UniProtKB/TrEMBL annotation:
A Pfam match: Acetyltransf_1
Start and end residues of each stretch annotated as Disordered: 1-22
CDD domains attached to this UniProt entry: NAT_SF (cd04301)
Any one of the GO CC terms: chloroplast
Name under which the protein is recorded: N-acetyltransferase domain-containing protein
Domain N-acetyltransferase: 163-267
Top-level taxon: Eukaryota
GO MF: acyltransferase activity, transferring groups other than amino-acyl groups
Length: 271
């Protein structure tokens, strides 16, 4: 599922793309904010995904290490960029795109990018197990090691506290307030194709709402492509309602499907 705003930076395309539609390593990055949590603590809020007759425990949390953050970025590139099997330079392009997004995401989280007041990457991860090993590409691209345990990022999103996202329709609520910013956007919402339609997307969005409430967010937004029916159903189920939509000319200029802007009232109900 690639249902929300994508902040992956552009890069030169490969020759034949199909289309683009426990060491605490984070301590080496100045001001990089993340929530440290042990695997046991993360598992306390875990859900179970059935896959091939077996159950996989999914831990939902803010990222802990840079290795996990990089694995999340790789999942996004895998989700948002598709290539023909015989594309020349496709793997090099994927790697370059992942490297650029990894640096950009660190800058957003650390507060180096103007407009982003606070950003967190929320991931769903599972232990690397025999039942998951059939998804060779997913395991090889999105694996990381924490406390000696191999895990795989299978879902991810960013929660961005800011007044707008680059190249996106801007939410109107609660308006511009010079004293505080209580508007937030979800972006880069994705779930590994092998584990879609199992409730993980809904669980990630629900987790982001809980964190947004901790931040004092009053209005939560997400963008979704007008042709992404699955994404629209997910957000409707999560309580989002229509606020506006992108002009057709802008979508053509940016070379992408037109997007809807959906809004969730954080004051509507307790989480």
């Amino acid at each position: 599922m690639a249902s929300a705003s994508q902040l992956l930076p552009p890069a030169p395309p490969p020759a034949a793309p199909l289309h683009r539609p426990r060491t605490r390593s984070h301590l080496a990055v100045p001001r990089l904010r993340c929530r440290a949590a042990s695997s046991a603590a993360a598992s306390s809020g875990a859900s179970l995904l059935e896959r091939g007759g077996s159950a996989a425990e999914v831990a939902l949390r803010e990222f802990v290490t840079l290795d996990e953050l990089r694995a999340a970025v790789r999942l996004r590139v895998r989700t948002f960029c598709e290539y023909a099997v015989d594309s020349v330079g496709a793997e090099d392009h994927r790697k370059a795109l992942a490297d650029r997004e990894f640096e950009a995401l660190q800058d957003r989280i650390s507060g180096k990018m103007i407009n982003f007041q606070r950003v967190s990457c929320i991931n769903g991860t599972v232990p690397l197990s025999p039942s998951l090993m059939t998804a060779d590409e997913l395991c090889s691209m999105c694996k990381f090691v924490e406390d000696g345990e191999e895990r795989v990022v299978v879902g991810s999103l960013d929660l961005n506290q800011c007044l707008w996202l680059p190249d996106e329709l801007t939410g109107k609520r609660p308006g511009v307030n010079e004293d505080s910013q209580t508007r937030a956007y979800l972006s880069n919402v994705c779930v590994a194709k092998e584990l879609q339609k199992k409730g993980l997307g809904y669980a990630l969005v629900d987790k982001s709402k809980k964190l947004a409430r901790e931040w004092g967010i009053t209005d939560l937004y997400v963008h979704v492509a007008i042709n992404n029916i699955a994404g629209q159903k997910l957000y409707k189920k999560s309580g989002f309602v229509y606020e506006g939509e992108e002009p057709a000319w802008k979508a053509r200029f940016l070379g992408r499907p037109r997007r809807l802007l959906l809004w969730f009232d954080m004051n509507k109900e307790p989480l």
